[in-house]
């Protein structure tokens, strides 16, 4: 068995503990994972509306082999289930996306959203408290003024670290349809939220108004054939953003061109391969995620079976296409029947844009090295994740004889899907969400 | 029945499945995936049936997933377009048969709903299905879905998705009439839709049942139904105009009235509405007066 360090320049190993809830309920299913801009913090959102933030341990000289591991830093309830009385609809509290703001002072800020409402949260630390008040004693009870004989100045004394999260802004009532994406602009003053048919631009300071910048709702809903599936701002150009559609197309828009960006500046679409045509061609071409590279030069899209990398300067086809799990192509009818064909997988770039990663079924996730064209399949599971052990590459056997350690397509567990992954912005640390478990894998030291 | 014939077609080797709808569908879809010998038209019909079933399931949910509904609707349209093109190339017309009752899928006990095909369409089916008869017994037993059925099915799904009152931001113009909340009467009975092909339109999504029941009502004497209602108040020549917003004279009202051929009052259109309104008004008056 080849060690996959030959394929990729690093090896991943799991940390000492796998971060997960002891009891697995529906509410514990992780629905989004995101590192902050320095990688010091990792946020997860779940179906129960909770956000859990992990912080990386500072590296200590005492234990050099134990490179910074992630521990729970803060937990808070971001969204609650709501009931829309006007439409008789329940609004799920599931966190669809979390996006961090860049750090500008001692506090951390993040945006979290469910189907309808975006919230700005401030996460701050308190490790000192004032002591020695004149008018009240340490318990907080008021002192009898006649008993006070001398004056003292309160001093700040250290206390146990307390991390508190407070909602600073609530951006509500702007979306009729379900929000699928949020993206912070590079100007750090605005952000956008996208639902199935519309994209709105917000200013962080203004919660009762937003600008509608994209609207693809037809006058007659019967003519609707396409919905927005994901959207993102360009990492450097604050006037540029992209959005993907259910028809497998990506539109790049420039907000300087007009207030309503219904007309795109660039339109990315690959012509269909006639040899792969099936009844499900359109469904599997629906893009589930779109991400700009850190350089801003490329965009990556994920559809059901592939990951594609596009050059912003070339609209007629992607420059790279990677097969994630092509062995599912012959199973599309079954996957359509059990609705797995509608699963929305995300994709991520590594810090240097040289490797891309995305999830699959059976708790597998895949990495593709764009330079060497090598790829690897890894599994996020407790059995394979002994501490200090190296992750073993996995292989799916398509037909014919199954070798040892290979798994056949029919044995794949389609209920174990990895939809959400994240890559540290500068180091080789990845976070993989497998249902209710969060796995963090780090690069092997030396 | 369908599964039995499918097994016949595929030969031995297909595992025996329980007569459970979901397992049968899973069996069919895995047969679709694994067998290369399934004729294209059969595969297409399987996919179409799955799509329509899903759309029907979504209709029963309060807030169907828009993304999925659009993808499935597009697939149905694509298949419909294909079938239309094929039929335009064929010398005989494609069957304009009765849409399948979704509950009559293989494995489902359809004792609750019996599929009575009016005699006229049987003729059509036998005349028009020449192009399919060569395929084998399955195509004849599979009920064909007409173009209009599918278009109206898709239209109804997408219209329902638009029932939500749209909260548009001030900067964008909302086209007039776009965002009216769906009126209660049009949500339920599909009879009130203004579709041209009444016969086929409602059939796809289970209101076939309703057509059956109206014919049942025809057999009863109208007076028997209403004999215990005190109609002394209404036996006057003066007919109170309807107190609710008058419904537009639509085929719906006429259809409803067909089942009550012997109405007592002279103003046949308004009587069913009048009676309800007056009794409601009475009731309200009683509450207000406190008697």
Structural account:
The complex is a heterodimer of chains A (446) and B (291). Chain A is mainly β. Chain A has one domain (2-10, 81-120, 168-442): 7 Propeller (Methylamine Dehydrogenase, Chain H). Chain A has helices at 281-285, 332-337; strands spanning 12-13, 19-20, 30-35, 41-46, 50-56, 70-77, 82-84, 89-91, 97-100, 108-113, 118-131, 155-171, 181-184, 190-194, 198-203, 211-215, 228-233, 240-245, 250-254, 266-268, 289-292, 298-302, 306-311, 320-323, 347-349, 355-359, 364-369, 375-379, 395-397, 406-408, 420-423, 429-434, 437-443. In chain A, a hairpin with an 8-residue loop joins strand 23 (306-311) and strand 24 (320-323). Chain A is globular and about 95 Å long. Chain A starts with 11 loop residues before the first strand and ends with a strand. Residues 1-11 of chain A have low confidence and may be disordered. Chain B is mainly alpha-helical and 291 residues long. In chain B, helix 3 (40-60) packs antiparallel against helix 4 (66-89) and helix 3 (40-60) runs parallel beside helix 8 (147-161). Chain B is elongated, with a radius of gyration of 24 Å. Chains A and B meet through strand 16 and helix 2 of A and helix 2, helix 3, helix 4 and helix 8 of B.
In short:
The complex is a heterodimer of chains A (about 450) and B (about 290). Chain A has about 450 residues and is mainly beta.
Features:
heterodimer; A: mainly beta; Methylamine Dehydrogenase, Chain H; 33 strands; globular; disordered N terminus; B: 291 residues; mainly alpha
Topology:
The complex is a heterodimer of chains A (446) and B (291).
Chain A: E1 12-13, E2 19-20, E3 30-35, E4 41-46, E5 50-56, E6 70-77, E7 82-84, E8 89-91, E9 97-100, E10 108-113, E11 118-131, E12 155-171, E13 181-184, E14 190-194, E15 198-203, E16 211-215, E17 228-233, E18 240-245, E19 250-254, E20 266-268, H1 281-285, E21 289-292, E22 298-302, E23 306-311, E24 320-323, H2 332-337, E25 347-349, E26 355-359, E27 364-369, E28 375-379, E29 395-397, E30 406-408, E31 420-423, E32 429-434, E33 437-443
Parallel strand pairs in A: 29-30
Antiparallel strand pairs in A: 1-33, 2-33, 3-4, 4-5, 5-6, 7-8, 9-10, 10-11, 11-12, 13-14, 14-15, 15-16, 17-18, 18-19, 19-20, 21-22, 22-23, 23-24, 25-26, 26-27, 27-28, 31-32, 32-33
Chain B: H1 2-10, H2 21-34, H3 40-60, H4 66-89, H5 119-128, H6 130-133, H7 137-141, H8 147-161, H9 184-187, H10 198-201, H11 208-219, H12 222-226, H13 251-258, H14 271-289
Helix pairs in contact in B: 2-3, 3-4, 3-8, 4-8
Family (chain A): Belongs to the phosphatase 2A regulatory subunit B family.
GO molecular function (chain A): protein phosphatase regulator activity
Keywords (chain A): Repeat, WD repeat
